[in-house]
Every structure is written in C-alpha cells, then in structure tokens.
Design goal:
The protein is of the alpha+beta class and about 300 residues long. It folds into three domains: about 100 residues, Beta Barrel (Barwin-like endoglucanases); about 130 residues, no CATH class; about 50 residues, Arc Repressor Mutant, subunit A. Helix content is about 20%, strand content about 25%. The chain contains seven helices and 13 strands. It has a six-stranded antiparallel beta sheet. Strands 4-1-3-2-5 form a five-stranded mixed beta sheet. Strand 12 and strand 13 form a beta hairpin. The C terminus is likely disordered.
C-alpha cells in the first residue's frame, strides 16, 4: 500500500476494510451484510465491516493483509495472527488464527468526504488529505480512510464510535478538510446530536460531513465520484434520505478494475442475453489480470439481489 495505496482506481473493487464471511455464519450471529463486527483472537481485537462472500466456507473468514494503520484505526489482520516463526526459515505464522466474531455496537457514526473541483490537482490534493487524516484514525473505535473514484479521486473517511464524537474532534476534521468556512451549507440539531456540512464548488459537491445521521451516505458518495452537478440536488444534500430524490446516472461498483467495467454494465449485458465470451468481447471485463472472472461467472447464476455488493 506504500505505492498502490496512492492510486484511487485500485480502491474501486474493495474500498473499505472488511472481513469476508459465509452468509450462513452471519445469519447465525444475526449479522447483516455491512454491519461492523468485533473480531478477536488470542493476540488482539479489531473492528471490520462484515461482507457476505459466496466463496467462503462456513467456519472460515478472510481478511486481506494490506489493510493497516495507513487506512484503518488498527493494524488490521496483523493484530489477530500469531507471532510464531518457523525455526529454520523464520517465516512468520501470519496465514491463519482462531477468531471470535460478534456484532459491534457503535451507534455514533460520521462520514466525511473531500475532493477537488480542479481536475488537474485532484490526485495530488487527495493524497495530501489522506496523509493528514491517517494520524486521526487511531482516535476512534472504528475509522477508515480510503480513496473512491478514478481520475478524480474522493477521499472518504468513515467513523464509528461507542460514545459521542467530541465536538472539538469534529471541528478539527472540518478544518483539516476545509469544511470550516462560511461558504459551507450547514445543519445542526443539538438535541439529537446531528450536524452536517456540504461544500459546493463550481457546481459540484466537493466536501461533505455527516455526523450522527448518515442515511444519504451512499448516493452522496456516488454523486461526488461521478461529479454529478448539484443544481437539481442542492436542496437535498443535507436531507436524511437513503436514495437520491432525483435519479442519477451512477455506474455503481467497479468489478473489473483493469478496464473500469461496473457491475451495472455487466448486469445490463447479461440481461440483454450476452454469454460470458460475448461479455468479454463487448465490455472486455476479465480479459486483463483475470481476478474478476470468478465474480463475473457467479453473476450469470445468481439473481441481481443475491450477489453481495
């Protein structure tokens, strides 16, 4: 992640640290797809977002090794695995460990996003924001900072806490991301501990902070990534609505990172009757590194709602 972690397009497939689990194991533990879970081994405890994966067997779990302190409020998988070594090669035993998984109760959540309206400085500015946010991550029970988008990256910071987030921390993050000016749209409900800010620059949503209520997080993130003009949505930017009131042409999650092919593109082609070979010719997905091929093949067998996003 010292090099690839600075490229927004490589975050597109799996952008937030997660633990892959079998759906049957999640059902037994009353864990829904997207819930935060506490993962504990004999060595340590971390918090990750649960993801129902079709290729994980019951009784097993998978956490990618590259999520660490540079993008997460913990050291990730390294806090769970054992520090034993092979007596001859000194290879560390970091491939497996027994863990306990339970749903995490972190009711106080926040989302912050920042991008640049200037396309030429978008990449460099995003890296500066990422570097500035990294020291903040360890303050929270759960926090992760990552890049969304491709040519015009958006810095995304997600926070979850067992206790209310201190107002001075919120003010500090606002200042760090340039959300402390008078040109921001603002909303505050002190009784319910909810506050929000939005920054519009050159007709684009370039900054956002939702604290205490984050219902609109997904469509607002898509809006920033797709650089959708705000003229039809400006009055809805701080509203607690889970879907955009005005339909947006968002592409959705990227499945083939190599060739920038989204899940919606693939599903549309399949619905039109394309087979796997025809899909590769038409969209070229799965023709480069090939890592997305298993997921694409599953999309032919599963209904639209069954493939976890």
């Amino acid at each position: 992640m010292s090099r690839t972690g600075k490229t927004a397009r490589l975050y597109g497939h799996v952008d937030e640290p997660r633990i892959d689990l079998a759906r049957s194991d999640m059902d037994r533990r009353n864990i829904a797809d997207g819930d935060l879970v506490r993962v504990t081994s004999r060595r340590g405890t971390i918090i990750l977002r649960a993801h129902a994966a079709e290729d994980i067997r019951s009784g097993q779990a998978f956490v990618a090794m590259h999520w660490g302190h540079n993008s997460l409020s913990s050291a990730g998988a390294n806090e769970l695995t054992l520090n034993s070594q092979d007596p001859f090669s000194h290879q560390p035993e970091f491939k497996h460990a027994a863990i306990l998984i339970e749903k995490a109760d972190l009711p106080h959540q926040a989302l912050l996003m920042r991008s640049s309206a200037n396309a030429e400085e978008a990449q460099s500015q995003a890296l500066l924001y990422m570097a500035a946010l990294t020291p903040w991550l360890s303050r929270f029970d759960y926090a992760t900072a990552f890049l969304a988008g491709r040519e015009h990256p958006v810095v995304v910071l997600r926070i979850a806490s067992a206790t209310p987030i201190p107002q001075e921390w919120i003010a500090g993050l606002d200042a760090l991301l340039g959300l402390d000016g008078e040109d921001c749209l603002a909303y505050s409900d002190t009784r319910r501990n909810i506050s929000k800010k939005a920054l519009v620059d050159a007709g684009l949503l370039t900054g956002l902070r939702l604290t205490g209520e984050t219902a609109a997080a997904n469509w607002l993130r898509d809006m920033m990534v797709e650089r959708t003009p705000t003229h039809d949505l400006r009055r809805w930017l701080l509203a607690p609505v889970t879907e955009a009131p005005v339909r947006q042409p968002g592409r959705g999650r990227i499945v083939c990172n190599c060739l920038n092919v989204a899940e919606t593109d693939i599903r549309t082609a399949i619905a039109d009757g394309a087979g796997f070979a025809e899909l590769q010719v038409k969209l070229r997905c799965g023709t480069a590194c090939g890592s997305c091929v298993p997921e694409i093949r599953r999309m032919f067998a599963l209904p639209a709602g069954d493939l976890a996003a």
